[in-house]
């Protein structure tokens, strides 16, 4: 879809209060170094009915101007608490942020198209136009901003707010926390920040005492970025409606009950098991050793540490666990309920004690294991296109359960929240607006995608074309 989009303003928004001198440098941790140096894009869509009642041209222009002023003012106040987001990453200085208050770029556009045309037929190329720039750049540098925003005003009165967060500064929880608190300040339209979450008063936390940075790790992380940025990768959206998720979970419960095992999968676990099973079946057809197929799952550490870390604090506070198949039958076949249960078993091991043991003494053992794993992954080439390598690593991620459908800037709750990431062998899982389903943006090599779409489990439970407006 080719939208009629016109840029009406570009502005740099700086924190409303200067960052104190003693806070001018924010050190990034080992976990930040391990995170991919890419942009994490998020787009939120809001209906027109809660924005302006009079749809005349004059009313729409006045409403847009009022929204613009209010958003920029509240963003400026929010940045005083998230001051590293207004700075720049200094890569050559071993990963620190220069909190120089250089600001966050904000682009505003007028979109001649109807927002519901986008919602009815969401396409990656269309959604990218709603972001301040294409987030799928291969290489980032100090000159690349930490956070950027684009506010899109549709002709119909709807609004879409697009974000690009630099991942080495913010994971999904940090990004959502920032958006939530910006929305709260904007909603209140107060000169003070009394409505901001108490946890946001401590949004900036130095975690380098637990996860000290490592000078050797950066090159390996960069190799993983290149491996995931295949030009021959295709990303497609699969929607698992609430009724389908419920049926999938019932099937998994019955499969485990037949083995005298009690297991009730979460929505995330169920979809992970289904997708993982489809990939294993596809690899078996290609005569690839499926025992070398692993899934990686990021586990949020904020509420697993003792004491807990602030819920919305910035940075990458997750540990990526690697899950293996654990074939219970021993026959080379893997049912989706077993795979879903494996996801739970591996992720529930992550506790405060586990984390402190893994990263003790600067995480030397873990870092060495990480480097060996990357070398093994890339030994047959770095493009990861033909998936005939001895290892297939598939990543599951996404901000499921972070309640972003409650983010209200003063225009009501969003109709749809989505991402725009193109990563090879990665599935980004998000909530549907009713909180009962799951949307999965799946990136695979072109040849693999055509086979993945024909998997019987995917065909049974996923919809390829349904609108995010669907409530089914």
UniProtKB/TrEMBL annotation:
<keyword id="KW-0012">Acyltransferase</keyword>
<dbReference type="InterPro" id="IPR023213">
    <property type="entry name" value="CAT-like_dom_sf"/>
</dbReference>
<protein>
    <submittedName>
        <fullName>Uncharacterized protein</fullName>
    </submittedName>
</protein>
<dbReference type="Pfam" id="PF02458">
    <property type="entry name" value="Transferase"/>
</dbReference>
<keyword id="KW-0808">Transferase</keyword>
<comment type="similarity">
    <text>Belongs to the plant acyltransferase family.</text>
</comment>
<dbReference type="GO" id="GO:0016746">
    <property type="term" value="F:acyltransferase activity"/>
</dbReference>
